[in-house]
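new request in #modeling-help
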Amino acid sequence: MTSSPTLLAEEGIDLDEAIATNRPTRRSLGRRLHLDTAAVVGWTIVIGVLAMALLAPLIAPFPPNDTDLRARLLPPGVLGGSASHVLGTDSLGRDVLSRVIWGSQLTLLVGVTAVLVGGLIGVTTGVVAGYAGGWWDLVVGRIADVQQAIPFVILALAVVAVVGASLLNLILVLGVGSWIFTYRIARAESLRVREQPYVEAARTLGAGTGRILRAHVLPNIAPPVIVVATLFVPQVIIYTAGLSFLGLGVPPPAAEWGRDIAQASEYLRTAPWPTLVPSAFLVVTVLGINLIGDWLRDVLDPVERSR
Amino acid sequence: MAGYLVRRLILSVFVLVGVALIVHVLVLLSGDPARAILPITAPPALVEAVRHQLGLDEPLPVQFALFLGRAVQGDFGTSTRFGTPAMAVVLDRIPATLALALTGLAISLLIAIPLGTLAALRKGTWIDAAARGAATAGQAVPNFVFAQLLILFFAVMLRALPVSGAGGVEHLILPAVVVGVASAAGLVRVLRASLLEVYSREYIRTAFAKGLTERGVLVRHAFKNAAIPVVTWLAFDVAAILSGIVVVERVFQYPGMGLLAFQAIGNRDLPIIQAVVFVSALAIVITNLVLDLVYVALDPRIRVAA
């Protein structure tokens, strides 16, 4: 915390200069993007998982659906299993490591697509609704109210019960299901910022709506919106896996972490490995994205960081 | 202020009509209900008769009005699996789910409020680091994974708690812990961030300057102002808790509304699914009305603007 202007004045320091230098300045990009340990861990995890997903055909030791009924539910190689199945096999004798590597593709693809779609819709509708208000706010708000009144998984259950489980349906359900989260916070924060003195001042000075949104509303709503969006990126990935876990996602035999966890959990007591391995990959991936989210928040909110 | 609340009440009714519309569209998308009821060999005349009886030959708005009329009375048709009114089947399961939700929420608040407050007040210390670490870890573990780990540890290794079914309090513990921890992980972060934001404000500095103790500032100024984002977050979390409960009930075979809905998919038991969608929407609408009252109490700007 810096000293108050009065104290500075008492010490003979020029007040205007003090205020000028006390203003949050734009740091050089290099400094702003400074990585702390957690961010390095997060990026390493996420880049690793992305590489795994992209290189799956090259690095997976077996095809994901190669069954071997003579080698069912093997423990990992180091725990007395077969040396060729490093992380063991599942109930159909499929190589767990290969399933996990291939499974990352669907989990990430679905999660990321859904978040992008939902976030874009949410911020756009939310900022306009919060700042401009009027009929737009009313209409979008009521649509959001209706949708928000239905718990996401229950909505997904209802939709899948009718239209069936498929990759496209899963992405659509997740994408349309996730816009509200960014919409709500973007709207609430825009409402708050709209009433702030600096926005009133800008309005009084004749700034147009576009300029106020860009220069005052967006930068000031960004930190909380990003926190919420960050909370929601991994959330969508978890929901992706969760819906697959419930059998609402991609139909078998496609490799997907959530579905593999559900299928293997039948054998949890006797053979926990096929459950634990994809679970661990899911947890670590989500953790990695969470760490990047925390870092992004710090980078985008230098005032918060300097506190 | 009364006008504000009346408006919210009208909106709640509107929301429920909207939910009914969505549910009705789902039914329309699912194909011809008359053919679903009748055997494949039914003669066309019989199909037409049933369609007429169900009002399916009416224009769509009329069909929706008829559907809405039945929905208001809690009539979503007969469960194809149980052969009894769908609403009665769902109502039977509500106490179990309500017990799970409330216990989960209580666990969440008991963990998150002390932890989030401590983390904010002791920002940068090991307490803060531990609380944030726990929250980060909690958010990284999906409820179904956490549930499997609890089953593996408490039920298989320790043999201390039952892993599935319902009955006494012991059947509630593991599912409620999963629901509560998932909620608490988010709540700790929101509360901490919200309190830190409040503590950076000048009125807090003023409060300290006029001699209030740390406790006084926290209770009289910080909590009240930090509560608004937390309440917003809780409004979402109720839906998230209900979502999580579907998964948790499935994992623990806990016989609530969520497990019922999950099993209804396999049977394409649409009346059950409709009733579950409606009941959960009703629960959320009621919660939101309560939270509206909290907003009014917390934020004078909302009171004045309304």
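bot summary: The mean pLDDT of chain B is 84.
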